[in-house]
UniProtKB/TrEMBL annotation:
Keywords: Isomerase, Pyridoxal phosphate
Cofactor: pyridoxal 5'-phosphate
Protein name, as recorded: Alanine racemase
SMART domains in the record: Ala_racemase_C
Binding site for substrate: 182, 367
Record PROSITE patterns: ALANINE_RACEMASE
Taxonomy of the source species: Bacteria, Bacillati, Actinomycetota, Actinomycetes, Micrococcales
Length: 439
């Protein structure tokens, strides 16, 4: 499908484009984290021209297909997690693609992400669960019918105060801590919180429509803590019910549990990484084995090509020296764009297009630049395309490959891709049904 070089235009912001409609236009709005080229400069250059380091291409049809697969696999509503600018993939376009694929809910961590969705005309149910205890942003969320996750008694106080002041009924999901010990109402505090919420519900200030928690070891499906947390979660639901609350949506399963623990699907699943086609259990299964299509590709071009003699040192500290006479290529990307400095000497990129090859990143990754060893017989030249990471269909490195090289997880690799990299979206987000996954 043809690449859509646009990002987000005015129709995304005022809600005039129906959800699922292909993205068109040229520039990101100034409020976007990826906006860095003004309209006059873009007009001089021509639409779609890269000004800086490279660009990220996101396949919206892959996103929609992944969500569709997860919905069919689980048979329960899907809350697609689009926090952190949709894991670096672009909040609004990905949200629309996820809804086109069958997501019933969207989930974000921070309230400003939820408000951005509403400003873009996305009217689907949105859950935001990382609150500060300040009533002012809560009131803004209530005015826009955003469901709030409350995880501390102070959050409950702020929500009740905002609801009373605004006259808006607050739709709430109670986040309980069942063992991750991050955010969530402590089980010891839950009875008192449940009583406060029940009283507020009787007063017409809140409606407790859901309850959720988060697993610490979901990527190890048979780890004993998974069952312990599930049991604790069941107990927490009982506490809420004993107080007279009736949360209709229980959700515990993240991507890993969605794919590996059908007993934890409950009333709704809450996948994040799987929406973007990446495996949350890379030690157990690849994306293809899970029926997922990676959605993101990072492309760049060689900014410089030079020959060096054997023994010549490269980049800061000469941490790498050429073992033989060879040809080096320079990428105009560095750790400011999201390439981990820790991948020095361990990561690879793809050159040569179809039928190309992987070449290693050598020397230290710098803020704006990284060097690759093209090999003694290289024929590449300045301007030739480089695929830094992608789905892996041609043999190019994947986000998981970069994660292994960096000693981290694929979540971090895609989410940290910097604001200097424009996002482009291909496809329309229409659902493409595929065969059931083999795994």
């Amino acid at each position: 499908m043809a690449d859509v070089t646009a990002r987000t235009d005015a129709a995304d912001l005022d809600g005039t484009r129906p959800p699922g409609t292909p993205v068109t236009g040229t520039l990101l709005p100034a409020a976007s984290p990826h906006a860095h080229v003004d309209a006059h400069l873009q007009a001089d250059l021509g639409a779609g021209t890269d000004v800086g380091t490279g660009h990220v291409v996101v396949d919206l049809d892959a996103v929609a297909t992944n969500v569709s697969s997860l919905a069919r696999r689980t048979g329960v509503p899907v809350l697609a997690v689009v926090k952190a600018d949709a894991y670096g993939h672009g909040l609004v376009p990905v949200a629309r693609a996820a809804l086109a694929g069958g997501a019933s809910w969207l989930g974000v961590a921070q309230l400003d992400e939820a408000l951005r969705l509403r400003e873009a005309g996305v009217d689907a149910p949105v859950l935001a669960w990382l609150l500060s205890g300040d009533a002012a942003p809560v009131a803004a969320a209530l005015r826009r019918q955003i469901t709030l996750g409350v995880s501390h008694p102070r959050h409950v106080e702020a929500v009740v105060a905002a609801a009373r002041a605004s006259g808006q009924v607050a739709d709430l999901h109670v986040k309980v801590d069942t063992g991750l010990h991050r955010n969530g109402v402590d089980l010891a505090d839950l009875p008192a919180v449940a009583r406060t919420l029940a009283e507020a519900e009787r007063d017409g200030l809140v409606a407790v429509s859901g309850v959720f928690s988060h697993l610490a070891w979901a990527d190890s499906p048979r780890h004993p803590t998974v069952d312990l947390q599930a049991a604790a979660f069941d107990g927490a639901v009982d506490v809420l019910r004993e107080a007279g609350l009736r949360p209709g949506l229980r959700h515990l399963a993240n991507s890993a549990a969605t794919l590996t623990r059908p007993d934890l699907h409950l009333d709704m699943v809450r996948p994040g990484l799987a929406v973007y086609g990446l495996s949350p259990v890379p030690d157990l299964a690849t994306p293809a084995e899970l029926g997922l299509r990676p959605a993101l590709t990072l492309r760049s071009r060689l900014a410089h090509v030079r020959r060096v003699a054997a023994g010549e040192g490269v980049s800061y500290g000469h941490a790498w020296s050429a073992p033989t006479d060879t040809v080096l290529g320079l990428l105009p990307l560095g750790y400011a764009d999201g390439l981990p400095r820790s991948t020095t000497g361990r990561a690879e990129v793809w050159v040569g297009g179809t039928g190309g090859r992987r070449v290693p990143v050598v020397g230290r990754v710098c803020m704006d630049q990284a060097v690759v060893d093209l090999g003694p017989g290289a024929r590449e030249d300045v301007g030739d395309e480089v695929v830094v990471l992608g789905p892996g269909l041609l043999g190019e490195p994947t986000a998981e490959d970069w994660a292994v090289a960096a000693g981290t997880i694929s979540y971090e690799i895609v989410a940290r891709l910097g604001s200097r990299l424009p996002r482009r979206w291909s496809g329309s987000g229409d659902v493409v049904l595929e065969e059931e996954p083999a795994w």
